[in-house]
Amino acid sequence: xxxxxxxxxxxxxGLTFRLYANKSxxxxxxxxxxxxxxxxxxxxxxxxxxxxxxxxxxxxxxxGPNGAGKSSLLKIIAGIYPATSGEMTIQGRITPLIEMGAxxxxxxxxRENVFLNAAILGVARAEAQRRLPKxxxxxxxxxxxxxxxxxxxxxxxxxxxxxSVAMELEPEILILDEVFAAGDGHFVEKATRRMQEFxxxxxxxxxxxxxxxxxxxxARRCIWMDHGRVIQDGPVEQVITAYQAALRTPDRQVSRS
Amino acid sequence: MAFLRELxxxxxxxxxxxxxxxxxxxxxxxxxxxxxxxxxLYPVLTMLILAAVFSRIMKFESAADMVLYVFAGLVPWNFFxxxxxxxxxxxxxxxxxLKKIYLPKLIFPLSVLFARFVDFLFNLVALFIIxxxxxxxxxxxxxxxxxxxxxxxxxxxxxxxALAAINVYVRDASHLMxxxxxxxxxxxxxxxxxxxxxxxxxxxxxxNPLVHIxxxxxxxxxxxxxxSLQQWGLGVGVAVAAAGVGHWIFVRLERNLIFRL
Lengths: 257, 261
What we know:
The complex is a heterodimer.
Chain A: E1 7-20, H1 27-32, E2 41-54, E3 59-63, H2 70-77, E4 85-91, E5 94-97, H3 110-120, H4 125-139, H5 155-167, E6 173-177, H6 185-201, E7 204-208, H7 212-218, E8 221-226, E9 229-235, H8 236-248
Parallel strand pairs in A: 3-7, 3-8, 5-6, 6-7
Antiparallel strand pairs in A: 1-2, 1-4, 8-9
Helix pairs in contact in A: 3-4, 3-5, 4-5
Chain B: H1 2-12, H2 14-29, H3 37-58, H4 63-88, H5 90-93, H6 95-98, H7 107-134, H8 145-169, H9 172-187, H10 202-207, H11 209-222, H12 229-254, H13 257-260
């Protein structure tokens, strides 16, 4: 593998959630637990034996019914969840756009939020400073709003600002969970074009979506998941056709969606 | 080693830490007329209330004496409580963010610790200004103040970081904390002199780790003397133990913390 190239390699990744009746135990349970036979827990395997290689330049889409493990897999790759078992090596900086504006603090002003969000997404301050004018221009936020707390922004304005910050990143491994609707009419149009350029600039893109039309248009490889396993992995047309066929056959396990 | 890995990660995410500290400081006093004035005024007002309520009972030789003594204990105490209460909840407060992006969890309690440390330094300056009007005899002992500050910082770091992780697992902890701190305030000689504690209860004071640290501040600021070697030793011991145990707990709990949020 050449230097500067990105790569994702997963070997036999498993993720087990321990389900607690109540996620954190209270003091009462802590004192009572010696009396009762153990805490009320049950294990749930969200991912089972996932092995994948994603090479530099690949555009991958994950499809599958709800609860298939798509988002869990993204979170493992993004480092949010530690895998219960298996091995993972990742080369390249990960830019997770799992939700727009996730790092915004409503109390801070638009300008301050740009810096905070940039830092969270791994952009140095000097770099953020340099890109600030472009971000502001692109977001179309009225200048007198920039130094106002974003809790006073309309949801459209907040979205536009978040989108503009994200689009100034230079992603190596881009992780997208669903595609965010980006505000009002004319902005959506402008954003869609920008988004395509943005995706094109990434070394690797992984997208989770239920929109099969979108899946076909942005990816060449498709991974179909169900019940924590990879069902099929291959060229997007082929996998989506198989997936759709399965969706239409109600007796198959995948049909519950 | 786990500790070195945490440090390297913190360095990689230092911009986030810096941003969190500065927004904490900016936001707390934004839109208030006095702004940072509040961080100076708060200990002064607390002090006045305590003076009004307790001065009779506490048997201080003079008002000036009491101001100096109470201040010397109250300013470190405020740093301790402020950092532990807010820092203890900091990981829980950032649940939504932690579920969407990977960030080292340690930056949340640390950002609170640093922000409260800045407040503490402000308070210390205020203390000097006010006290110099009343009865302040500068002494060489002041040169050892940074040592006491460092000890205090390490101790608070350990407690804050441990609480931040424990609070995620045991939700009762954050409710319990407020009460425990209130109790601890009265169990620590801040508004009364140690000599006021009955002889047979003195040994109990020694069990309170904070006592050993507050003593350093009392010696330096209120008595104008350099603490004894034994006092330094106890202070350092308590602080290093707290920081070590606190970070050990955090590292142990950190890995699965995301599943418990």
